[in-house]
Write a structure and sequence with these properties.
Elements (H helix, E strand, L loop, with lengths): L41 E2 L15 E2 L13 E5 L9 E5 L4 E4 L2 E3 L1 E5 L9 E5 L3 E2 L1
Antiparallel strand pairs: 1-2, 3-4, 5-6, 6-9, 7-8
Protein name: YmaF family protein
Pfam families: YmaF
InterPro entries: YmaF
Length: 131
């Protein structure tokens, strides 16, 4: 199955050319994910291979942040230390994508910060969770 990022308009890539900090609030959201309560999702995997290496990105999302399109999660952290350096990543996930039996996932497409003259991309889905 092929997933087109354009199919998930809730996905908000971070830092496509601007590596500043993300806003602390999402316009139109209740910002519950800034220390609120609720379910979370695990995420892990490898970045794209750039400069002849990859990094891992293990972590857990924020609690849900309600928006007009459905809830999203803040996803952020540092990659593993590989090839002598790390990268930072931060974004919001897409709105929930139902996968059956009351479970859902979220899509994300993130560019890491630049380090050692290159960036990496993290694309994929969070682990499934029930709301």
């Amino acid at each position: 199955m092929h997933f087109n990022n354009a199919s998930y308009p809730g996905a908000v890539p971070f830092g496509w050319g601007n590596y500043g900090r993300m806003p602390r609030q999402i316009p139109g959201g209740n910002n519950q994910g800034q220390g609120g309560t609720g379910h979370t999702h695990a995420h892990y995997g490898a970045t794209t291979c750039n400069d002849e290496h990859t990094h891992l990105h293990p972590g857990v999302t924020s609690p849900p942040i309600e928006t007009e399109e459905g809830h999203v999660h803040r996803i952020y952290g540092y990659t593993t230390f590989d090839d002598g350096h790390i990268h930072y990543y931060e974004a919001y996930t897409s709105a929930p994508i139902p996968i059956g039996n009351g479970y859902h996932t979220h899509y994300t497409d993130i560019r890491t910060t630049e380090n050692d003259g290159h960036i990496h991309v993290i694309r994929g889905f969070t682990d499934a969770s029930k709301s």
